[in-house]
Amino acid sequence: MNSGPDLHLKTDLQSAVSKALQLGRPLLTHLNADTSWVLSIPYPEGSPGPASRHVYNILIDPWLQGAQSDLAAWFSQQWHVVDSSVQTISELTSCLRDVENFAESSSPVSCEQNDALEHQSLSYIDAVVISHEFTDHCNFETLKQLQPATPVFATKKAAQLILSWRLFDKVHPISCLSKLNHDWRKTSSEDLPSWLGIARITTNRDALHFHSAILITFRIGPESRERQTEGIVYTPHGINADDLKVLQQASPPISVLALLHGLHDIRLSIKRLNLGAHNALRAQRISGSKYWVSTHDEIKRAAGFVNRFLKRKVWTIEDVLKEERREKGRIEVDSPLADLRDVHFANLGSGESLLLA
């Protein structure tokens, strides 16, 4: 009997997705201890999915196993220390298929419909999002396992790289949300449902757009109420917190449901790679996110020339709040600098899920 990580993920996902469907809320699942995710969004009422599907699954920055190397192994190479909860795309697809079948068996449909869903050759991965061109985000060995028909949404350099591999039928460069382009609906495409958009937030101060964010927006909920636009901000290396003020100018307005931003401050010599907890704290306050989820904080096994110059400062929420109090003195209870009373912080392990209620 298989008692590996994929079995635990499958069991946990069934329970979590069942609750997500009951509440009509998204589910965020961490596939490893680093920055590979699945965002599962229930199809809204009145917008049914294909072949009786219940959930729209977005795979984000998948790197499941093996080494990742940029430029050359002698220059930089890393390995996961914690095993991914699934080792292959096939295992992930199997988990997502079983979750759909579990959801289908709980709904009032005919056996014929159930059989059709069981035997149809569906990928159950509806879209892929790639935030950076680096191989711990844009991993050839993982991406080549996906079906060619899977639509991919990638930042400009990552899209160019993926197109050169000729793995997919459609690769969409992600457009930017900005002061001039502040309507999230324009970031949808023919390969996305009309209630879903994928955009990028960048800054002119970072010409390479290393510190940027992916914004996934959606409108779900009961047809009986006016649906609010919600957003997930995913920024694995961090984005300058002030750049998130563009969200306050979005039209229609966007309520940020979750911010995915790491805690660790990582530097390569004098250049900051991951902006860390201090920036994340400010980003949460500016975005007003209900959830703050850490990402890209796995302390991986590393080798190569670059590794000699990497410096990591590990922060906790408690540490950064204590330091802020020391710097600013007494903070009033009603101050925007007060403790994160209404914010749900989560540090998910490999295979763990969070219901974004």
Task: Provide key terms for this protein.
alpha/beta; 7 helices; 357 residues; six-stranded mixed sheet
Question: What would you say this structure looks like, in words?
Answer:
There is one protein chain. By secondary structure, this protein is an alpha/beta fold. 23% of the residues lie in helices and 23% in strands. The strands form 4 sheets. Strands 8-7-6-3-2-1-19 form a 7-stranded mixed sheet, with helices on one face. A 6-stranded mixed sheet has the order 9-10-11-12-15-18, with helices on one face. Strands 4-5-16 form a 3-stranded antiparallel sheet, with no helix packed on it. Strand 4 (68-69) and strand 5 (77-79) form a beta hairpin. It is globular and about 55 Å long. The two termini are 34 Å apart. The model is unreliable at 108-119 (pLDDT under 50).
Condensed summary:
By secondary structure, this protein is α/β, with parallel strands linked by helices. The chain has helices spanning 5-23, 89-105, 111-119, 140-143, 156-165, 276-287, 317-328; strands spanning 27-30, 37-42, 55-60, 68-69, 77-79, 127-130, 152-154, 171-173, 196-201, 213-219, 229-234, 255-260, 265-268, 271-275, 291-293, 301-303, 310-313, 344-346, 353-355.
Helical content class: 10-25%
Order of helices and strands: HEEEEEHHEHEHEEEEEEEHEEEHEE
Secondary-structure-derived class: alpha/beta
Strand proportion, as a percent range, falls in 15-25%
Task: Please report the total strand number as a whole number.
Answer: 19
Radius of gyration: 20 Å
